[in-house]
Specification:
mainly alpha, 321 residues
Length: 321
């Protein structure tokens, strides 16, 4: 397959380097401040501080995430697809772990990992259109219910397939819409805009998620959903979403959007990111777990980091279509 220049990191290079430098400076400042605070408290108290230790772990992990995404973008569309395919694989493993996996027939469980997930991302290479958009919905709505009905008719009571169906939708179908942004004919006059749209989505949603956490720690007083996510507050959520709107407006020149449109889209993405995080928190509470895993120190599992993209990525993709 012939990969063109449009598959690479968006141009002009100056803008890309300015953004990379800005992200690096923010991470450097965050690292320096967090390290100094931890050192000061340890010298004063002569013991570790759990909150600051967690903050330092989060920042260290953000360095790794930023480097991984940056290298994937430099590698072009194949690199981005591979990166998010691996992220989906890790997220699906976390979602189908433990007792949930034991209730799903082994053959069906492995078909999700070895057939459906790779095929979904391979379609982004070969046929990023109706097949990509319909593969997993057809499997979830027709194939798996059909198998369950046949099994119940011939071999006894139905098996629990709902976790597999939900896992494929959230961890594979939803997340695959992030690299799918690179396949959209957004701007015939500037094919590099696709890459900037992917960067726009990731920065607005992920930075907004981080800012919700920071605003909550700094000014949070009223819990917004104490049973589902005790750490989320009204002040943190509003502050994070509004900050994401400001970031989106600042990034508008890199996209086909006007400043006002970018701010409104960022507002929508921020709300969807919050709702997606709350949905995954509700599923965690049902299972009695705090985090989906331990893959990303300070954050939890891969799905703990991707939860805010589960709703925002598909909506952003189909909004652009």
């Amino acid at each position: 397959m012939d990969w063109h220049a449009a598959d690479l990191l968006p141009q002009p290079p100056d803008a890309a380097w300015r953004m990379a430098a800005g992200i690096a400076i923010v991470l450097l400042l965050a690292t320096l401040v967090a390290r100094l605070l931890r050192l000061r408290l340890r010298l004063a108290r002569r013991q570790p501080h759990a909150l600051l230790d967690n903050l330092n772990q989060r920042i260290d992990t953000w360095w790794l995430i930023a480097i991984a995404v940056g290298l994937a973008l430099l590698a072009g569309r194949p690199g981005v697809i591979v990166l998010f395919a691996l992220a989906s694989l890790a997220a699906l493993r976390e979602f189908l772990a433990g007792d949930v996996a034991a209730a799903i027939p082994r053959a069906l469980r492995w078909s999700g990992f070895a057939i459906i997930l790779p095929l979904q991302y391979l379609l982004l290479f070969a046929a990023p259109g109706p097949l990509f958009a319909s593969l997993i919905p057809l499997c979830v709505l027709l194939v798996l219910p059909g198998w369950e009905w046949l099994h119940a008719a011939h071999d006894g009571p139905p098996r629990r397939l709902r976790p597999l169906q939900l896992g494929l939708l959230l961890c594979v179908y939803a997340i695959s819409h992030v690299p799918a942004l690179l396949t959209l004919p957004v701007d015939a006059g500037d094919t590099q805009r696709n890459g900037w749209l992917l960067v726009f989505l990731l920065l607005v949603v992920q930075v907004g998620d981080v800012l919700q956490y920071l605003w909550g720690k700094l000014a949070g007083r009223h819990q917004i959903a104490p049973r589902l996510s005790p750490a989320k507050t009204v002040e943190g959520t509003v502050g994070g979403i509004l900050s994401a709107c400001a970031l989106g407006a600042w990034l508008a020149p890199l996209t086909p959007f006007t400043t006002a449109a970018a701010a409104m889209i960022s507002l929508l993405l921020g709300v969807l990111g919050f709702v997606g995080g709350l949905l995954l928190s509700a599923l965690k509470r049902q299972r009695g777990i705090k985090d989906w895993g331990t893959l990303l120190p300070g954050h939890g599992g891969m799905l703990d980091r991707l939860d805010s993209l589960c709703l925002s990525a598909p909506v952003f993709y189909y909004l652009l279509r």
